[in-house]
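Sequence decides. Our protein:
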Amino acid sequence: MAAPGGLQEEALKRKERLKALRERTGAAAAAAARQNKDDGAPELKHFRGDSEEKDMGKHKELKLRNYTPEDEELKGRVVPKAKPASVEDKVKEQLEAAKPEPIIEEVDLANLAPRKPDWDLKRDVAKKLEKLEKRTQRAIAELIRERLRGQEEDLASAVDSAKQEGSDSD
């Protein structure tokens, strides 16, 4: 646990930092009020003066759009009512641009002919047929290889038998 003297030192340092911060931000009035409070004097409410109002006016200007003031000073801040722009010309241009121009004057009867009733079935079966076609080609290739192997064995046996017959005749 920290020593009581150390806590007091930290509190004093914090007070000094806050005081320096207040001076930097320009809150001297708030600091004076706190000092009065520490001294036991009652805290007085501080109203904005003319100089502070001018400073605030620099940052944010008052614009009255929906309110009609009675005060003469505020009547100068009323924003004039906005008049809607005419959009008739823009709408006419868009309507003219949207009108389709006749592209095809002659009708091609081949394009109007309906599709065959089974076109969707053919489309859906096409992928499956591709797989089957690949498998069929592989099976045909294997059958051909087996036949060739069988012929090689027949050829080998024919050659062997021919050698045996030739050796007997010698």
Observations:
- The chain has a mean pLDDT of 77.
- Helices lie at 4-25, 28-39, 50-59, 72-75, 88-98, 109-112, 119-169.
- Residues 4-41+54-75 form one domain.
- The CA atoms of residues 96 and 102 lie 14 Å apart.
